[in-house]
Amino acid sequence: MKHTIEAICTGTARPFNGAETSAIAKRPREGLVQFLEDGLAPDEQADRRVHGGPEMAVHLYPLDHHEFWRERLGPTGLLDEPGPFGSNLAVRGITEAQVHIGDRFRVGSALLEISQPRQPCWKIEHRFSSVCDAKGMVAAIVKTGRSGWYFRVLEFGEAQAGDTIERVEMGEVEWSVQRTFAALMAGKAARDDLIQLSQMTALSPKLRERASSRLDAKLA
Predict the structure, then answer these.
(1) 27-50 as b/e: b if 16+ CB within 10 A
(2) What is the pTM of this model?
(3) Mean pLDDT over each residue of the chain, to the nearest integer
């Protein structure tokens, strides 16, 4: 699996909703970009409780989903940009059903590993609401599984637009990002699923804990 990186995007935290700030508006970078433990250098996340850090260092939201959103939202200039959902990597031809937790990808000279699906938040709807009727976007993401995903950085390196992203090692082949999202974000996990997820070392610790907590609730 090899695809071209159309853009590498980063952002800075800016006023977003009253006192709130956000760096969801990612813009394409020119030239080489560094991939470090906490993500791209430089790139900001306004709320480090729910974004960023080693387990959510790099975000990819498939460009393939933009057409779905155009049909749902109508014409909006945001969808002509490579990073309207806060994505760092703009890539076409790869979706949540085709990749798995623990898959490893060579991106330029960096080595990345898929750590978890992205959990959608209200900031997606708020950003799009400035240009269209965005009500229900988060619910649609949960329903359809168009979540995108996060990578951790295993080997620091550099990449630029036009480089390739190539899968070099498969991870948990039974656990696509799509299935993992359905289990842990959309609440569709059976007991055995939760056992597997709670023990999956390639899954981010935060989601392993979520699986454990839901398993305990089922057993109570």
Answers:
(1) eebeeebbbbebbbeebbbbeeee
(2) 0.94
(3) 92
